[in-house]
């Protein structure tokens, strides 16, 4: 405490001040404090965006590497039951026009771990979400000519991931509405390998197509197209019904994505933004636990749909 005395007129004025107290300066010359709240707000938004993007990336990796296998398994179960019924009732499709996505054949190949694998009509990234797909401008297995079937090697159960284990002489069987056909593997072709011999008009060949890669990318980021050629060994080849398509879209060819998935992807992204806004409002207005119980299932459903559409932009053999 500091005491200062000075004369003022007839008396003495005593001024008592704290030792740490400073005289007030001119308020116009004092520095303006920084808006701390604004800085904290910007930091919070930045952290929230970073966490949100990271969470979406982790979700997509989880979806592609794990959850797609469950989705493909469910599709195969439904297709198997449907195709078995069609075979029993002799109503399995044999020729054009065959609806896209309809089951058309069933493959078994012991050496590659394939058991009752159902093939659907069509080979775009969308059709290959369900399992292997038949290239529509080629005949069905068991018919004259070269039947081509495409299958994934990484995502959605990776049904063709082990067909590269097949060796010349190995056998595989294909069941269609025209019977059971046994094929013998001729060759496993990698990029640069010569094409198989030309077929006679009454012969049938089955070509399985998938993707693969060597080195550190093997098993998760294939870049090559691999072909397994097999010639019909047992079973009478059948004529090709009229109406076989002359050409297919580019999206049906190996290692192509599906650009038509842009519209559903846009729809799901818009739904995700709206759902996030509603959940944020509900968190403040309604309550934390109520928001979790109602919002999480809705958010997961939207994320699943968006991820499903996004995967279709990737190569169809991935």
Summarize the structure in words.
The protein has 318 residues and is an alpha+beta fold. It folds into 2 domains: 63-254, Sortase, Chain: A (Beta Barrel); 260-311. 32% of the residues lie in helices and 23% in strands. The chain has 3 helices and 10 strands. The chain has helices spanning 36-89, 262-285, 288-311, and strands at residues 2-8, 11-17, 103-109, 114-121, 133-134, 145-150, 171-176, 179-189, 204-212, 224-234. Helix 2 packs antiparallel against helix 3. It is elongated, with a radius of gyration of 34 Å. The model is unreliable at 2-16 and 18-25 (pLDDT under 50).
Number of E-state strands: 10
Query: What's the architecture of the largest domain, going by CATH?
Result: Beta Barrel
**pLDDT below 50 for ≥5 consecutive residues: which ranges?**
2-16, 18-25
How would a textbook summarize the main sheet? 8 strands, mixed, barrel
Give the number of helices.
Answer: 3
How do the SSEs run, as a string of H and E? EEHEEEEEEEEHH
Structural class: alpha+beta
Q: What's the N-to-C terminus distance?
A: 81 Å
Percentage of helical residues?
Answer: 25-40%
The CATH homologous superfamily name of the largest domain equals Sortase
Number of domains: 2
What is the spatial order of strands in the main beta sheet? 3-4-5-6-9-10-8-7
On the 0-100 scale, what is the average pLDDT?
Answer: 86
Instruction: Characterize the overall form.
Output: elongated
Rg (C-alpha, Å): 34 Å
Which fold does the CATH topology of the largest domain refer to? Answer: Sortase, Chain: A
Tell me, what is the CATH class of the largest domain?
Mainly Beta
